Amino acid sequence: MALRLWGIKQGLPFSYNVDEAEHFVPRAVGFFSQNLNPNYFLNPPAYSYLLHIVFELWFGSADAVTRAYTNDPTAVFVVARVVAAALGTIAVLFTYLAAERLLDRSVALLAAGIFGLSFLPIFYSHLALNDVPALAPLTLALYGAAGVLRHGRLRDYLIAGVAIGLAAATKYTGGIAVICLIAAALCDGFGPRRWRAPLFVLAAGLAAVAAFVIANPYSVLDFSAFTAGLSQQASGADLVKLGASQGSGILYYIWTFTWGMGTVPALAGLCGAVLLLVRRRFAVALVLLPTVIAFIVFMGLQTRFFGRWLMPMFPIVAIVGAYAAVELIRWLHRHRRIPLALGGLVVSALLLTQSLTTVIHNDQALSRPDTRNLTRDWMVKHILPGTKVVIEPVVPSGWGNDIGTSGPWTRTGSRWYQYATWLTDYDAATGALYPAGERKYVTVDQYEKTLRPELLNEYVEQGYCWVVIGSLQAGRAFAQPGAAPRAIRYYAALANRAKLEYTVSPFAPRSHPVPFSFDWSIDYYPRQYRLPGPEMSVYRLTGGKCS
Fold first, then answer.
1. pLDDT per residue over 513-546, tens digit each?
2. Which three-class secondary structure string do you get for 367-384?
């Protein structure tokens, strides 16, 4: 929990993660001024509902929550992030309990250590997203499935069923735990209680549906919107983002284990899978292994893939890897006369050192100012209010506002007049301009494809003399220059034509910059990172109205 809370205020008062800024906290706050229909099912609403309840309890009233969100968003986001961190910590406990039921207490302790210190779950515990909260019910489902395998009691079926429903209502992919329950039920059905297993499976299924509907009631009350959201989520996974990793998604997720959990735990997981089969622990293998294989194949076949989407498999791989590690410790004791305590320390150090050192380094970076905050501070000091600026969508739309105040310098109350980067008069697909006066909305993912050197003339003609860019946006074009050649020319023209007034790098001095990626450019895993955030630069154009 301490590792999850260290650096919990990263980036605030601005939320620089697009999903965090738009999908959960705002909707939880919005429930105070409307009904509880999220009118949005791209992500399930269980985490937003939980935040809604927590906000009410913490701040005391709907008015207090709304005022805090408007005037002090840091307070609101910190509460939401702490909820995610707490649920991530609870998931470690449930992983321990599940492993104890499936194997033994030594394996459980080491599994909790592997999963509890894994980099990706700790990093995403710092953000108010649904990825980590979904791990709590998912690991509870593992605990229930382990109980089904060991005891076959109705309560274990019901625990697993309710947990699966809650996991899916928090993040749709959390429902993958149903494979563990089905496998455990199959094993139970071949035992002496085979006559009860089908009835108990039916009860678990009803419990899962009930839990899902309770945590996501408008999946029934607004069924058409719910199915439309599911369809949008499925189609969204097939949209290719500029700068996204290319190649095999399956290989990408296998590689993600090596840094998201650690290379040694990943190899231990592979060895543990083999060992379970060799030692004829078929029941445990059936409960755990097919789920991992099915998940990696399903997610890997999507067009887009991100490291955080793999996290539901971390508890299972941690359990299997811990099994292999404990068996190694016992083998060293039996055949090499190495004391159990010494063998345990050495093997544990091999398993946990990579993750622990990476997490500590990452938390140190997160506890320091974000490069985007540093850039804004410089702009406040050096760019007069009311000035026209061009700011890439590397920051949220409200970044130009002074939190809690409305300044007299612009018609909107913002500190500066901002160029409408979210609108374009250029069709990137055809390379032609739209009819005079026509502009169309452009998403962040497609923004780079609308850039071209001629825009600099437009900036100057309209008096937009300051241009702010960031590597989290520009890096997409440089990662795939062939897909956005005009953007490459735009940045070259900007560097040649404008004066660089300010720049800040997140990387340590004399270290090599990290190439753009949708994982490492956002979670700051590489050791080069000293600060959170992208490389930021502020240019001043000259000539014409910018003389």
1. 999 999 999 999 999 999 999 999 999 999 999 9
2. CCCCHHHHHHHHHHHHCC
Report whether pLDDT(238) > 70: no
> What's the chain's Rg over C-alpha atoms?
26
Residue 285 vs residues 281, 291, 293, 315, 435: alpha-carbon distances, Å: 6, 10, 12, 14, 62
pLDDT digits over 166-192, tens only? Answer: 999 999 999 999 999 999 999 988 866
pLDDT in tens, 74-115: 999 999 999 999 999 999 999 999 999 999 999 999 999 999
Which structure tokens are listed for 293? 């294989």
Strand-strand pairing, 466-470 and 536-540 = antiparallel
Contacts of 432 (CB under 8 A, 6+ apart): 426
Residue 266's Cα: distance from chain center in Å? 20
Torsion, Cα of 313, 314, 317, 323 (10° steps): -140
- Distance, CA of 479 to chain centre: 21
Whole-number percent of the chain with pLDDT over 90: 80
Q: How far apart are the C-alpha atoms of 357 and 122, rounded to whole Å?
A: 12
Using DSSP, state whether 316 is helix, strand or coil.
helix
373 by Cβ neighbours in 10 Å (0-12 / 13-18 / 19+) ranks as buried
Q: Please list the helix, strand and coil fractions of the chain in percent, rounded to the nearest 5, in that order.
A: 65, 5, 30
CA distance 140 to 88: 12
